[in-house]
Amino acid sequence: MLVTKIINPIDVDSNVAVGLKLNLVPTGSFFFGCNYTTVEQYKDNIKNLILTSLGERIMLPGFGSELQKYLFEIYNNKTVDLYHIISSAIETWISGITVDQIEVIDDNIDKNIVKVSIFFHVNSISNKTEKVDITTRVQ
Q1: Domains annotated on the chain, with CATH
Q2: Which of 60, 71, 88, 120 has the greatest CB tally within 10 Å of its CB?
Q3: Chain Cα centroid distance, residue 69
Q4: What is the pTM of this model?
């Protein structure tokens, strides 16, 4: 049985970084941590986008999502609105992926915490579903 693995052209050399990790902490020989695969970079790009509030980025006031703003509102059926907020931000700012599913889970113990799981696949690589988890707390 022949199994074909499709990889992104920039993932060919495992010694060449694709981009920076979201957690900008100095590591090893690099000043910041690096991602070496396209999938890992997409995951960090999604986290960066969703956790950035609209208007927070200088010169890109439309970059981000309204997730933090929405979390301050009175609780009532957040799931549908959060799905729209997240999916529209990803469609606008991140090309090359398809969002398959978004799950919003409220923490039963701490009502100030919202957990979001985003299931997606990278269009140029395969239909393998990847998952990125985001946990945010109302400050």
Answers
A1: 9-137 (3.10.450.40)
A2: 120
A3: 18
A4: 0.80
